[in-house]
Amino acid sequence: MPEPPKLDPSIRSMDDLIASPHPEGRDNEDTEILRKRLVYESRKRGILEMDLILSTFAKDRLPTMSDRELREYDRFLTLPDWTIFYYVTGKAEAPEPWRSSSVLSELLHHSANEGKSVRRMPDLEVKQ
């Protein structure tokens, strides 16, 4: 597995991570803009398996996520694709603060697809 990026040692919890400056400078992004950007970023990862897992997760969960959950998911998407793949498929154990992340827990459950549902990329909503 590729080495995940190193976090600042002062970040010990998800609250610390969310409170730290966003690596792409998106700290004050409006919640609805954030939600729309996360839909796009969940669909366009570069690895087809991640596109499928994350886009179906985003379709199911983003509409009801709280602002805090959205920001947690946003930080998760800043990780490299292969790191995300290993974490959401359970092939590697995520380090703290991700290990205690409720969003990662939901992603693990979603990725397991225990109901064996057939998944496809969700259609984009087109506003007239």
UniProtKB/TrEMBL annotation:
SUPFAM superfamilies (UniProt xref): YgfY-like (SSF109910)
Record keywords, A-Z: Chaperone, Mitochondrion
Subunit structure: Interacts with the flavoprotein subunit within the SDH catalytic dimer.
Region described as Disordered: 1-30
Subcellular location: Mitochondrion matrix
Keyword Protein transport belongs to the record: no
InterPro entries assigned: SDH, SDH_sf, SDHAF2
Biological process terms in GO annotation: mitochondrial electron transport, succinate to ubiquinone; mitochondrial respiratory chain complex II assembly; tricarboxylic acid cycle
Family to which this protein belongs: Belongs to the SDHAF2 family.
Naturally occurring in which organism (per UniProt): Rhodotorula paludigena
Lineage: Eukaryota, Fungi, Dikarya, Basidiomycota, Pucciniomycotina
GO CC annotation, single: mitochondrial matrix
Protein name: Succinate dehydrogenase assembly factor 2, mitochondrial
HAMAP family found in the cross-reference section: SDHAF2 (MF_03057)
